[in-house]
Amino acid sequence: MKIGKLPEPVLIRSILKQVGHRRKEVLAGPSVGVDCAALEVEPGEVLVMSADPITGTVKDLGSHCIHITANDLAASGAEPLGVMLTVLLPENVEEPEIRQMMRQAEDTCRELKMEILGGHTEITRVVTQPLISVTGVGKIRKEELLNPSGIRPGMDLVVSKWIGLEATSILVKEREERLKERFSPEFIRTARSFDQYLSVVPDARAAKAAGAAAMHDITEGGVFGAFWEMASAGNVGLEIDLRAVPIRQETVEICEFFGVNPYQIMSSGSMMIAAEDGQAVVRALRDAGIPGTVVGRTTEGRARILRNGEEIRYLDKPQPDELYRALEG
Q1: pLDDT tens-digit readout, 8-47
Q2: Which residues contact 48 (CB under 8 A, 6 or more apart)?
Q3: Has residue 58 got a pLDDT over 80?
Q4: What average pLDDT does the structure give for the chain?
Q5: Contacts of 227 (CB under 8 A, 6+ apart)
Q6: What is the DSSP letter of 215?
């Protein structure tokens, strides 16, 4: 199989259909387009959990893994509390690298008011580079839990900040020498700074207060993958104006350099939000100092339409994330 997420038919057939539901405490379990589980541990009190392996980068791995997991929790409307870390390391790792990784994770947790709750650390021949698998825990009141079941036809879709932030930051750090052949030091410094935008916890807080019905962190597969997953999870169609999808020029040029599609590349740092009043969400984001853009609407039926001026096409099923191809190239 290709590197990246399992193809949706395989995910449904060989993963999701093998899993049963038997506990009344479980309010949300595994499903396409749903990144978090929810368990009602006391009447009205819900724990939200997520799991992520961080495989796209080695540089700043400790910080990256915390942001990705906190973003998933925030997309459900929950307050991120903490993480459990499973750290798998190759034989050639040195202790200063381990210490730096954990300092990065702790600094990011401090910034987000989270805690590292525990985990497991191991040297193993199974991996050739450091791998962190993160289990995140958050909390929320039951009546405030956001779920794709809240999506209905006729809702606005809002994208916060810009797509491709995560991939741009990773490519600059992992392939800086190649990029120096084309781009100026100032351009590279600007693109490298995109990791300051990776958290969508503030985005989620502002959107929730403005009446968001559902949110989805735009991660692997890029904005095209997020459109597909949100439509599948909400059982709706979409009509998207591609020209409205916000993207930084640095991302456009770096994706062109590597010959990859910026709409299909990792985009943590950007949240997709479904709401009855998208402009209210945009205003709330703006008041929090966060750019936001209405990019389309949900529709009746299953059609997923992309408009680019007069050109109309239909959204394809999610493809392997373009970041892997850029790194391999």
Answers
A1: 787 788 877 877 777 777 777 677 666 677 878 788 888 8
A2: 36, 37, 38, 73, 76, 78, 137, 138, 139, 140, 145
A3: no
A4: 91
A5: 238, 240, 272, 304, 315
A6: E
**247, 307 contact by CB (below 8 A):** no
pLDDT digits (tens, 9 = 90+) for 108-154: 999 999 999 888 888 999 999 899 999 999 999 999 999 888 899 99
Amino acid at 230: M
**What are the start-end ranges of the H helices in the chain?**
8-10, 61-75, 95-112, 165-174, 176-180, 185-192, 201-209, 222-234, 249-258, 278-287, 322-328
Cβ atoms 201, 71 nearer than 8 A: yes
Residue 97, C-beta contacts closer than 8 angstroms, at least 6 positions apart:
130
Cα(145)–Cα(187) distance, rounded to whole angstroms? 41
Exposure class string for 211-223: b at 16+ Cβ within 10 A, else e: ebbbbbbbbbbbb
The two structure tokens encoding residue 258: 């590597």
**Tell me, what DSSP letter sits at residue 14?**
I
The separation between the first and the last C-alpha atoms of the chain, rounded to the nearest angstrom, is 19
Distance of alpha carbon 254 from alpha carbon 256, whole angstroms: 5
Q: What pLDDT digit, counting tens, does each position of 209-260 carry?
A: 999 999 999 998 999 999 999 999 899 999 999 999 999 999 999 999 999 9
Token pair of 305 as six digits: 């339409």
Asked if 47 contacts 28 with a C-beta cutoff of 8 angstroms, the reply is no
Q: Which amino acid is at 130?
A: P
Q: What are the φ/ψ torsions at residue 314 (nearest 5 degrees)?
A: -110, 140
